[in-house]
Amino acid sequence: MSSVQPVESNTPRKYQLFIDGQWVDAESGKTFTTPNPATGENLAEVSEADKADIDKAVSAARRAFEGKWSKMSARDRGRILYKLSKLIEEHSSELAALETADNGKPIKESTYVDLPQVAENFEYFAGWATKIEGETIPVPGQMFNYTLREPVGVCGQIIPWNFPLLMAAWKLAPALAAGNTVVLKPAEQTPVTAMELGKLIQEAGFPEGVVNIVPGYGETAGAALAAHPGIDKIAFTGSTEVGKLIARAAAENLTKVSLELGGKAPNIVFADADMDQAVNGAMMGIFFNQGQVCCAGSRLFVEEKIKGEFLDRLIEKASRINVGDPMDKGTHMGPQVSEEQLNRIKSYVDVAQKEGATMLAGGESPQLAGAFQKGYFFQPTIFSDVNNQMRVAQEEIFGPVVSVITFRDEDDLIRQANDTIYGLSAGIWTRDITRAHRFAKEIKAGVVWINTFNMFNAASPFGGYKQSGYGREMGKHALEMYTHVKSVWVDLSGRPIGWFGK
Ligand code: NAI
Ligand code: MG
Fold first, then answer.
1. Looking at ligand 1, which residue's alpha carbon is closest to its atom 38?
2. Domain span at residue 338?
3. What's the structural domain count of the chain?
Protein backbone atom coordinates (compact mmCIF):
# COMPACT_ATOMS: atom_id res chain seq x y z
CA MET A 1 0.00 0.00 0.00
CA SER A 2 1.26 3.41 -0.88
CA SER A 3 1.66 5.88 1.97
CA VAL A 4 1.47 8.81 -0.44
CA GLN A 5 -2.04 9.72 -1.60
CA PRO A 6 -1.80 9.85 -5.41
CA VAL A 7 -2.97 12.92 -7.25
CA GLU A 8 -5.79 11.09 -9.06
CA SER A 9 -7.23 9.70 -5.77
CA ASN A 10 -10.95 10.37 -5.34
CA THR A 11 -10.79 10.64 -1.57
CA PRO A 12 -11.00 14.33 -0.61
CA ARG A 13 -7.52 15.48 0.06
CA LYS A 14 -7.16 16.68 3.67
CA TYR A 15 -4.11 17.30 5.76
CA GLN A 16 -3.73 17.94 9.47
CA LEU A 17 -0.72 19.40 11.22
CA PHE A 18 2.14 17.02 11.94
CA ILE A 19 3.22 17.66 15.53
CA ASP A 20 5.04 15.30 17.90
CA GLY A 21 4.59 12.41 15.51
CA GLN A 22 0.80 12.85 15.45
CA TRP A 23 -1.60 14.22 12.87
CA VAL A 24 -3.68 16.83 14.67
CA ASP A 25 -6.17 19.61 13.93
CA ALA A 26 -5.14 23.19 14.54
CA GLU A 27 -5.98 24.42 18.06
CA SER A 28 -8.34 26.95 16.45
CA GLY A 29 -9.92 24.25 14.30
CA LYS A 30 -9.26 26.47 11.27
CA THR A 31 -8.34 25.17 7.83
CA PHE A 32 -7.38 26.75 4.52
CA THR A 33 -7.54 25.51 0.95
CA THR A 34 -4.82 25.33 -1.67
CA PRO A 35 -5.86 25.59 -5.33
CA ASN A 36 -4.43 23.89 -8.37
CA PRO A 37 -2.98 26.93 -10.18
CA ALA A 38 -3.60 25.38 -13.61
CA THR A 39 -7.38 25.38 -13.11
CA GLY A 40 -8.10 27.33 -9.94
CA GLU A 41 -9.82 24.21 -8.58
CA ASN A 42 -9.47 23.26 -4.96
CA LEU A 43 -6.68 20.70 -4.47
CA ALA A 44 -6.66 20.18 -0.71
CA GLU A 45 -7.96 21.38 2.62
CA VAL A 46 -5.21 21.90 5.16
CA SER A 47 -5.24 22.62 8.89
CA GLU A 48 -4.07 26.15 9.54
CA ALA A 49 -1.38 26.51 12.19
CA ASP A 50 -1.17 29.65 14.31
CA LYS A 51 0.77 30.71 17.40
CA ALA A 52 -0.74 28.06 19.71
CA ASP A 53 0.22 25.27 17.29
CA ILE A 54 3.69 26.70 16.83
CA ASP A 55 4.10 26.66 20.64
CA LYS A 56 3.10 23.00 20.70
CA ALA A 57 5.44 22.12 17.84
CA VAL A 58 8.39 23.95 19.39
CA SER A 59 7.82 22.15 22.73
CA ALA A 60 7.65 18.80 20.93
CA ALA A 61 10.84 19.58 19.04
CA ARG A 62 12.55 20.54 22.31
CA ARG A 63 11.51 17.29 24.01
CA ALA A 64 12.72 15.29 21.02
CA PHE A 65 16.00 17.19 20.98
CA GLU A 66 16.69 16.59 24.68
CA GLY A 67 15.37 13.03 24.46
CA LYS A 68 15.71 10.20 21.98
CA TRP A 69 17.26 12.13 19.11
CA SER A 70 20.29 13.33 21.07
CA LYS A 71 20.87 9.80 22.44
CA MET A 72 20.77 8.21 19.02
CA SER A 73 24.09 7.34 17.38
CA ALA A 74 25.20 9.35 14.37
CA ARG A 75 25.09 6.15 12.37
CA ASP A 76 21.44 5.53 13.19
CA ARG A 77 20.59 9.15 12.38
CA GLY A 78 22.27 8.73 9.02
CA ARG A 79 20.46 5.46 8.37
CA ILE A 80 17.06 7.03 8.99
CA LEU A 81 17.91 9.91 6.65
CA TYR A 82 19.06 7.43 4.03
CA LYS A 83 15.85 5.45 4.44
CA LEU A 84 13.90 8.64 3.88
CA SER A 85 15.80 9.29 0.65
CA LYS A 86 14.90 5.78 -0.53
CA LEU A 87 11.21 6.23 0.39
CA ILE A 88 11.19 9.46 -1.60
CA GLU A 89 12.64 7.65 -4.60
CA GLU A 90 10.01 4.92 -4.27
CA HIS A 91 7.22 7.48 -4.24
CA SER A 92 8.78 9.98 -6.60
CA SER A 93 6.20 9.74 -9.38
CA GLU A 94 3.26 10.37 -7.01
CA LEU A 95 5.15 13.17 -5.30
CA ALA A 96 6.09 14.76 -8.63
CA ALA A 97 2.46 14.72 -9.76
CA LEU A 98 1.35 16.30 -6.48
CA GLU A 99 4.04 18.95 -6.73
CA THR A 100 2.83 19.84 -10.20
CA ALA A 101 -0.81 19.88 -9.07
CA ASP A 102 -0.06 22.22 -6.16
CA ASN A 103 2.59 24.46 -7.70
CA GLY A 104 1.87 24.36 -11.44
CA LYS A 105 5.41 23.50 -12.55
CA PRO A 106 5.57 21.20 -15.58
CA ILE A 107 5.60 17.50 -14.76
CA LYS A 108 8.87 17.21 -16.70
CA GLU A 109 10.50 19.52 -14.15
CA SER A 110 9.01 17.99 -11.02
CA THR A 111 9.89 14.49 -12.27
CA TYR A 112 13.40 15.09 -13.57
CA VAL A 113 14.61 18.04 -11.50
CA ASP A 114 12.76 18.51 -8.21
CA LEU A 115 12.23 14.94 -7.04
CA PRO A 116 15.68 13.55 -7.90
CA GLN A 117 17.28 16.49 -6.09
CA VAL A 118 15.02 16.04 -3.07
CA ALA A 119 16.15 12.41 -2.71
CA GLU A 120 19.77 13.38 -3.46
CA ASN A 121 19.84 15.95 -0.65
CA PHE A 122 18.63 13.47 1.98
CA GLU A 123 21.05 10.86 0.68
CA TYR A 124 23.98 13.27 0.65
CA PHE A 125 23.37 14.54 4.18
CA ALA A 126 22.71 11.01 5.45
CA GLY A 127 26.37 10.42 4.69
CA TRP A 128 27.42 13.49 6.66
CA ALA A 129 25.81 12.33 9.93
CA THR A 130 28.85 10.14 10.75
CA LYS A 131 31.38 12.64 9.45
CA ILE A 132 30.70 15.72 11.55
CA GLU A 133 33.87 15.95 13.57
CA GLY A 134 35.69 18.21 15.96
CA GLU A 135 39.40 18.94 15.82
CA THR A 136 42.41 19.10 18.07
CA ILE A 137 44.16 22.45 18.23
CA PRO A 138 47.94 22.78 18.69
CA VAL A 139 47.81 25.13 21.71
CA PRO A 140 51.06 25.86 23.58
CA GLY A 141 52.01 24.51 27.01
CA GLN A 142 50.80 21.50 28.91
CA MET A 143 47.32 21.82 27.56
CA PHE A 144 45.05 19.74 25.42
CA ASN A 145 42.44 21.65 23.43
CA TYR A 146 39.81 20.11 21.23
CA THR A 147 36.52 21.12 19.67
CA LEU A 148 33.13 19.46 19.63
CA ARG A 149 30.64 20.08 16.84
CA GLU A 150 27.21 20.05 18.41
CA PRO A 151 23.73 20.56 16.98
CA VAL A 152 22.31 24.02 17.71
CA GLY A 153 19.00 22.61 18.97
CA VAL A 154 15.49 23.38 17.79
CA CYS A 155 15.40 24.90 14.29
CA GLY A 156 12.53 26.89 12.82
CA GLN A 157 12.47 26.64 9.03
CA ILE A 158 10.23 28.75 6.78
CA ILE A 159 10.15 27.87 3.09
CA PRO A 160 8.62 29.29 -0.11
CA TRP A 161 6.38 27.85 -2.79
CA ASN A 162 8.62 27.82 -5.90
CA PHE A 163 10.32 24.46 -5.18
CA PRO A 164 8.14 23.27 -2.31
CA LEU A 165 9.59 19.85 -1.59
CA LEU A 166 13.12 20.70 -2.64
CA MET A 167 13.24 23.68 -0.28
CA ALA A 168 12.03 21.37 2.51
CA ALA A 169 14.87 18.98 1.65
CA TRP A 170 17.53 21.73 1.54
CA LYS A 171 16.45 22.81 5.00
CA LEU A 172 15.65 19.51 6.73
CA ALA A 173 18.51 17.33 5.51
CA PRO A 174 21.51 19.22 6.97
CA ALA A 175 19.63 20.16 10.15
CA LEU A 176 18.72 16.53 10.86
CA ALA A 177 22.11 15.13 9.84
CA ALA A 178 23.69 17.41 12.44
CA GLY A 179 21.30 16.16 15.14
CA ASN A 180 18.87 19.09 15.37
CA THR A 181 15.10 18.92 15.57
CA VAL A 182 12.86 20.99 13.34
CA VAL A 183 9.61 22.93 13.09
CA LEU A 184 9.01 23.40 9.36
CA LYS A 185 6.49 25.87 7.98
CA PRO A 186 5.68 25.27 4.31
CA ALA A 187 4.33 28.11 2.15
CA GLU A 188 0.55 28.54 2.30
CA GLN A 189 0.39 28.28 -1.53
CA THR A 190 2.01 24.82 -1.65
CA PRO A 191 1.71 22.75 1.54
CA VAL A 192 0.75 19.43 -0.06
CA THR A 193 4.06 17.67 -0.71
CA ALA A 194 5.49 18.76 2.65
CA MET A 195 2.55 17.02 4.34
CA GLU A 196 3.10 13.90 2.26
CA LEU A 197 6.76 14.07 3.28
CA GLY A 198 5.53 13.98 6.89
CA LYS A 199 4.06 10.53 6.21
CA LEU A 200 7.37 9.29 4.80
CA ILE A 201 9.22 10.81 7.77
CA GLN A 202 7.03 8.70 10.05
CA GLU A 203 7.66 5.63 7.92
CA ALA A 204 11.42 6.21 7.88
CA GLY A 205 11.51 5.91 11.68
CA PHE A 206 12.38 9.39 12.94
CA PRO A 207 11.45 9.59 16.65
CA GLU A 208 8.32 11.61 17.44
CA GLY A 209 8.83 15.35 17.48
CA VAL A 210 12.12 15.37 15.55
CA VAL A 211 10.30 16.87 12.56
CA ASN A 212 7.11 18.89 12.98
CA ILE A 213 5.32 20.32 9.96
CA VAL A 214 2.98 23.24 10.53
CA PRO A 215 1.41 24.76 7.41
CA GLY A 216 -0.11 28.20 7.82
CA TYR A 217 0.16 31.81 6.76
CA GLY A 218 3.32 33.88 6.98
CA GLU A 219 1.97 36.74 9.07
CA THR A 220 0.60 34.32 11.69
CA ALA A 221 2.35 30.93 11.81
CA GLY A 222 5.56 32.16 10.17
CA ALA A 223 5.87 35.25 12.35
CA ALA A 224 5.15 33.21 15.51
CA LEU A 225 7.89 30.75 14.59
CA ALA A 226 10.49 33.41 13.77
CA ALA A 227 9.82 35.27 17.04
CA HIS A 228 9.65 32.16 19.23
CA PRO A 229 12.08 32.32 22.16
CA GLY A 230 12.15 28.51 22.25
CA ILE A 231 13.97 28.06 18.95
CA ASP A 232 17.75 28.16 18.62
CA LYS A 233 17.92 28.87 14.91
CA ILE A 234 15.67 30.20 12.18
CA ALA A 235 16.27 29.46 8.50
CA PHE A 236 14.28 31.26 5.85
CA THR A 237 13.94 31.26 2.08
CA GLY A 238 11.68 33.84 0.43
CA SER A 239 11.41 37.53 -0.30
CA THR A 240 14.03 40.02 0.84
CA GLU A 241 11.23 42.04 2.43
CA VAL A 242 10.16 39.17 4.71
CA GLY A 243 13.82 38.20 5.23
CA LYS A 244 14.31 41.56 6.94
CA LEU A 245 11.30 40.90 9.20
CA ILE A 246 12.75 37.50 10.10
CA ALA A 247 16.13 39.02 10.94
CA ARG A 248 14.43 41.62 13.15
CA ALA A 249 12.37 38.98 14.95
CA ALA A 250 15.47 36.85 15.42
CA ALA A 251 17.38 39.82 16.84
CA GLU A 252 14.95 40.01 19.77
CA ASN A 253 16.13 36.61 21.10
CA LEU A 254 19.48 36.65 19.30
CA THR A 255 18.36 33.51 17.48
CA LYS A 256 20.90 32.23 14.95
CA VAL A 257 19.57 33.12 11.49
CA SER A 258 20.23 32.22 7.87
CA LEU A 259 18.48 33.82 4.92
CA GLU A 260 18.21 32.87 1.27
CA LEU A 261 16.45 35.77 -0.42
CA GLY A 262 15.75 37.38 -3.74
CA GLY A 263 17.94 37.92 -6.75
CA LYS A 264 18.28 39.83 -10.00
CA ALA A 265 20.96 37.76 -11.62
CA PRO A 266 22.95 39.01 -14.60
CA ASN A 267 23.12 36.42 -17.37
CA ILE A 268 25.80 37.70 -19.74
CA VAL A 269 26.40 36.94 -23.39
CA PHE A 270 29.67 38.01 -25.02
CA ALA A 271 30.00 38.18 -28.79
CA ASP A 272 32.45 35.28 -28.76
CA ALA A 273 29.98 32.91 -27.08
CA ASP A 274 28.62 29.80 -28.74
CA MET A 275 25.30 31.28 -29.87
CA ASP A 276 23.26 28.07 -29.60
CA GLN A 277 24.47 27.49 -26.07
CA ALA A 278 23.90 31.10 -25.08
CA VAL A 279 20.36 31.31 -26.49
CA ASN A 280 19.38 28.09 -24.74
CA GLY A 281 21.09 29.29 -21.58
CA ALA A 282 19.18 32.57 -21.65
CA MET A 283 15.91 30.65 -21.92
CA MET A 284 16.89 28.27 -19.13
CA GLY A 285 17.81 31.30 -17.06
CA ILE A 286 14.42 32.97 -17.19
CA PHE A 287 11.71 30.55 -18.32
CA PHE A 288 12.57 27.55 -16.16
CA ASN A 289 9.89 27.06 -13.46
CA GLN A 290 7.90 29.95 -15.04
CA GLY A 291 10.67 32.31 -13.95
CA GLN A 292 9.84 31.70 -10.29
CA VAL A 293 13.44 31.14 -9.34
CA CYS A 294 15.48 33.24 -6.91
CA CYS A 295 18.58 32.81 -9.08
CA ALA A 296 16.73 33.45 -12.40
CA GLY A 297 18.82 35.19 -15.07
CA SER A 298 16.36 38.08 -15.21
CA ARG A 299 18.89 40.66 -16.45
CA LEU A 300 20.11 39.41 -19.78
CA PHE A 301 23.23 41.39 -20.70
CA VAL A 302 24.07 41.11 -24.40
CA GLU A 303 27.20 42.57 -26.01
CA GLU A 304 26.03 45.45 -28.19
CA LYS A 305 27.46 44.18 -31.48
CA ILE A 306 25.47 40.89 -31.42
CA LYS A 307 22.23 42.30 -30.10
CA GLY A 308 20.26 41.99 -33.35
CA GLU A 309 21.19 38.43 -34.20
CA PHE A 310 20.93 37.21 -30.63
CA LEU A 311 17.50 38.68 -30.02
CA ASP A 312 16.15 37.29 -33.31
CA ARG A 313 17.16 33.82 -32.23
CA LEU A 314 15.86 34.26 -28.70
CA ILE A 315 12.47 35.51 -29.88
CA GLU A 316 12.18 32.67 -32.36
CA LYS A 317 12.97 30.04 -29.75
CA ALA A 318 10.75 31.61 -27.10
CA SER A 319 7.83 31.55 -29.55
CA ARG A 320 8.11 27.76 -29.60
CA ILE A 321 7.70 27.35 -25.81
CA ASN A 322 4.58 25.33 -24.98
CA VAL A 323 2.60 27.02 -22.23
CA GLY A 324 -0.27 24.91 -20.94
CA ASP A 325 -1.34 21.84 -19.00
CA PRO A 326 1.53 21.20 -16.59
CA MET A 327 0.61 17.49 -16.37
CA ASP A 328 1.39 17.12 -20.08
CA LYS A 329 4.93 15.81 -20.63
CA GLY A 330 5.42 18.12 -23.61
CA THR A 331 4.65 21.31 -21.66
CA HIS A 332 7.56 23.70 -21.06
CA MET A 333 5.77 26.21 -18.87
CA GLY A 334 2.75 25.73 -16.59
CA PRO A 335 0.86 28.43 -14.71
CA GLN A 336 2.35 30.85 -12.21
CA VAL A 337 1.77 29.72 -8.64
CA SER A 338 -1.07 32.10 -7.76
CA GLU A 339 -3.30 34.87 -8.98
CA GLU A 340 -1.35 37.25 -6.73
CA GLN A 341 1.91 36.37 -8.49
CA LEU A 342 0.25 36.61 -11.91
CA ASN A 343 -1.01 40.11 -11.10
CA ARG A 344 2.38 41.12 -9.82
CA ILE A 345 3.96 40.04 -13.12
CA LYS A 346 1.34 41.91 -15.13
CA SER A 347 1.98 45.05 -13.13
CA TYR A 348 5.69 44.82 -13.94
CA VAL A 349 4.86 44.53 -17.64
CA ASP A 350 3.07 47.87 -17.30
CA VAL A 351 6.02 49.32 -15.41
CA ALA A 352 8.42 48.22 -18.16
CA GLN A 353 6.33 49.83 -20.86
CA LYS A 354 5.96 53.07 -18.91
CA GLU A 355 9.72 53.11 -18.38
CA GLY A 356 10.24 52.93 -22.15
CA ALA A 357 11.33 49.32 -22.61
CA THR A 358 10.38 47.61 -25.89
CA MET A 359 8.26 44.46 -25.65
CA LEU A 360 9.54 41.89 -28.13
CA ALA A 361 7.50 38.87 -27.04
CA GLY A 362 4.70 37.84 -24.69
CA GLY A 363 3.35 40.36 -22.21
CA GLU A 364 0.01 38.69 -21.53
CA SER A 365 -1.76 35.50 -20.56
CA PRO A 366 -2.15 32.94 -23.36
CA GLN A 367 -5.62 31.93 -24.55
CA LEU A 368 -6.09 28.40 -23.29
CA ALA A 369 -9.10 26.16 -23.62
CA GLY A 370 -11.38 24.40 -21.14
CA ALA A 371 -10.45 24.12 -17.49
CA PHE A 372 -7.20 26.00 -18.10
CA GLN A 373 -9.01 29.25 -18.85
CA LYS A 374 -9.08 29.84 -15.10
CA GLY A 375 -5.40 29.04 -14.62
CA TYR A 376 -2.72 31.62 -13.81
CA PHE A 377 -0.77 31.30 -17.06
CA PHE A 378 1.56 33.90 -18.54
CA GLN A 379 3.52 33.96 -21.77
CA PRO A 380 7.31 34.05 -21.97
CA THR A 381 8.04 37.77 -22.14
CA ILE A 382 11.07 39.62 -23.49
CA PHE A 383 11.85 43.31 -23.07
CA SER A 384 14.72 45.02 -24.81
CA ASP A 385 16.01 48.60 -24.55
CA VAL A 386 16.13 48.21 -20.79
CA ASN A 387 18.74 50.11 -18.87
CA ASN A 388 20.03 48.86 -15.57
CA GLN A 389 18.47 51.72 -13.61
CA MET A 390 14.90 50.87 -14.57
CA ARG A 391 12.68 49.22 -11.99
CA VAL A 392 12.33 46.11 -14.16
CA ALA A 393 16.11 45.75 -14.01
CA GLN A 394 16.36 46.39 -10.27
CA GLU A 395 13.31 44.69 -8.75
CA GLU A 396 12.62 40.97 -8.58
CA ILE A 397 9.63 40.15 -10.82
CA PHE A 398 9.64 36.39 -10.20
CA GLY A 399 8.02 35.49 -13.48
CA PRO A 400 8.92 34.67 -17.10
CA VAL A 401 9.95 38.23 -17.89
CA VAL A 402 13.48 38.99 -19.04
CA SER A 403 15.06 42.43 -19.38
CA VAL A 404 17.67 42.69 -22.13
CA ILE A 405 20.42 45.22 -21.44
CA THR A 406 23.37 45.85 -23.72
CA PHE A 407 27.00 46.50 -22.79
CA ARG A 408 30.07 47.70 -24.68
CA ASP A 409 33.03 46.07 -22.95
CA GLU A 410 34.06 44.18 -19.84
CA ASP A 411 34.42 47.21 -17.56
CA ASP A 412 31.04 48.56 -18.58
CA LEU A 413 29.58 45.12 -17.96
CA ILE A 414 31.03 44.47 -14.48
CA ARG A 415 29.93 47.89 -13.27
CA GLN A 416 26.35 47.27 -14.37
CA ALA A 417 26.24 43.62 -13.34
CA ASN A 418 27.23 44.52 -9.77
CA ASP A 419 24.93 47.54 -9.64
CA THR A 420 22.07 45.82 -7.78
CA ILE A 421 21.12 45.28 -4.16
CA TYR A 422 21.16 41.54 -4.85
CA GLY A 423 24.02 39.07 -5.25
CA LEU A 424 22.74 35.53 -5.48
CA SER A 425 23.96 34.21 -8.82
CA ALA A 426 25.36 35.13 -12.23
CA GLY A 427 25.91 33.49 -15.59
CA ILE A 428 28.44 34.23 -18.33
CA TRP A 429 28.64 32.91 -21.90
CA THR A 430 32.02 33.28 -23.57
CA ARG A 431 34.75 31.15 -25.14
CA ASP A 432 37.46 33.28 -23.52
CA ILE A 433 38.45 31.41 -20.38
CA THR A 434 40.52 34.21 -18.89
CA ARG A 435 37.58 36.57 -19.17
CA ALA A 436 35.24 33.99 -17.68
CA HIS A 437 37.41 33.53 -14.60
CA ARG A 438 38.05 37.28 -14.25
CA PHE A 439 34.30 37.71 -14.18
CA ALA A 440 33.84 34.91 -11.63
CA LYS A 441 36.21 36.80 -9.36
CA GLU A 442 34.76 40.24 -9.83
CA ILE A 443 31.05 39.54 -9.66
CA LYS A 444 29.54 39.90 -6.20
CA ALA A 445 27.37 36.80 -6.15
CA GLY A 446 27.28 33.49 -4.30
CA VAL A 447 27.10 31.30 -7.41
CA VAL A 448 28.62 31.78 -10.87
CA TRP A 449 27.76 29.67 -13.90
CA ILE A 450 30.16 29.68 -16.85
CA ASN A 451 28.60 28.51 -20.13
CA THR A 452 25.81 26.91 -18.14
CA PHE A 453 22.96 28.02 -15.88
CA ASN A 454 20.81 26.73 -12.99
CA MET A 455 23.21 23.93 -12.08
CA PHE A 456 22.77 22.48 -8.60
CA ASN A 457 24.12 19.61 -6.61
CA ALA A 458 23.63 18.61 -2.97
CA ALA A 459 27.41 18.74 -2.49
CA SER A 460 27.86 22.28 -3.84
CA PRO A 461 27.08 25.36 -1.70
CA PHE A 462 24.37 27.84 -2.62
CA GLY A 463 23.62 31.24 -1.11
CA GLY A 464 23.86 34.97 -1.52
CA TYR A 465 25.92 38.11 -1.20
CA LYS A 466 24.43 41.49 -0.25
CA GLN A 467 20.63 41.56 0.17
CA SER A 468 20.32 38.06 -1.26
CA GLY A 469 20.99 36.88 2.28
CA TYR A 470 23.60 35.02 4.32
CA GLY A 471 24.50 31.44 5.07
CA ARG A 472 25.10 28.65 2.57
CA GLU A 473 22.77 25.78 1.86
CA MET A 474 23.93 22.36 0.66
CA GLY A 475 27.44 20.96 0.74
CA LYS A 476 29.50 20.85 3.91
CA HIS A 477 28.94 24.58 4.33
CA ALA A 478 25.29 23.98 5.23
CA LEU A 479 26.48 22.17 8.36
CA GLU A 480 27.99 25.45 9.60
CA MET A 481 24.47 26.81 9.93
CA TYR A 482 23.28 23.87 11.99
CA THR A 483 26.18 23.27 14.37
CA HIS A 484 27.92 25.02 17.24
CA VAL A 485 31.63 24.69 17.81
CA LYS A 486 32.55 24.06 21.44
CA SER A 487 36.15 24.47 22.54
CA VAL A 488 37.29 22.19 25.39
CA TRP A 489 40.51 22.83 27.39
CA VAL A 490 42.21 20.14 29.47
CA ASP A 491 45.20 20.65 31.74
CA LEU A 492 47.84 17.99 31.20
CA SER A 493 50.42 19.25 33.73
CA GLY A 494 48.58 18.27 36.91
CA ARG A 495 49.93 21.46 38.57
CA PRO A 496 47.81 24.22 40.16
CA ILE A 497 47.55 27.54 38.30
CA GLY A 498 50.21 29.70 39.97
CA TRP A 499 48.94 33.12 38.91
CA PHE A 500 47.73 34.28 42.33
CA GLY A 501 50.68 32.76 44.15
CA LYS A 502 51.63 29.23 45.07
P1 NAI B 1 7.20 35.57 1.08
O2 NAI B 1 8.61 35.92 1.39
O3 NAI B 1 6.11 36.40 1.69
O4 NAI B 1 6.92 34.03 1.52
C5 NAI B 1 7.90 33.06 1.73
C6 NAI B 1 7.60 32.30 3.03
O7 NAI B 1 7.64 33.21 4.12
C8 NAI B 1 6.21 31.65 3.09
O9 NAI B 1 6.29 30.44 3.81
C10 NAI B 1 5.40 32.66 3.86
O11 NAI B 1 4.29 32.10 4.54
C12 NAI B 1 6.43 33.15 4.86
N13 NAI B 1 6.16 34.49 5.41
C14 NAI B 1 5.53 35.54 4.81
N15 NAI B 1 5.47 36.59 5.66
C16 NAI B 1 6.06 36.21 6.81
C17 NAI B 1 6.31 36.84 8.06
N18 NAI B 1 5.92 38.10 8.30
N19 NAI B 1 6.98 36.16 9.02
C20 NAI B 1 7.39 34.89 8.80
N21 NAI B 1 7.17 34.24 7.65
C22 NAI B 1 6.52 34.87 6.67
O23 NAI B 1 7.02 35.53 -0.48
P24 NAI B 1 5.66 35.68 -1.33
O25 NAI B 1 4.80 36.72 -0.72
O26 NAI B 1 5.08 34.34 -1.49
O27 NAI B 1 6.23 36.18 -2.72
C28 NAI B 1 6.54 37.55 -2.91
C29 NAI B 1 7.84 37.70 -3.66
O30 NAI B 1 8.89 37.16 -2.88
C31 NAI B 1 7.93 36.96 -4.97
O32 NAI B 1 7.33 37.65 -6.02
C33 NAI B 1 9.42 36.85 -5.12
O34 NAI B 1 9.94 38.04 -5.62
C35 NAI B 1 9.91 36.65 -3.72
N36 NAI B 1 10.16 35.23 -3.42
C37 NAI B 1 11.44 34.78 -3.44
C38 NAI B 1 11.70 33.45 -3.24
C39 NAI B 1 13.09 32.91 -3.26
O40 NAI B 1 13.28 31.75 -3.55
N41 NAI B 1 14.10 33.69 -2.92
C42 NAI B 1 10.63 32.47 -3.03
C43 NAI B 1 9.31 33.05 -2.96
C44 NAI B 1 9.11 34.39 -3.17
MG1 MG C 1 4.42 37.57 1.14
1. 238
2. 266-450
3. 2
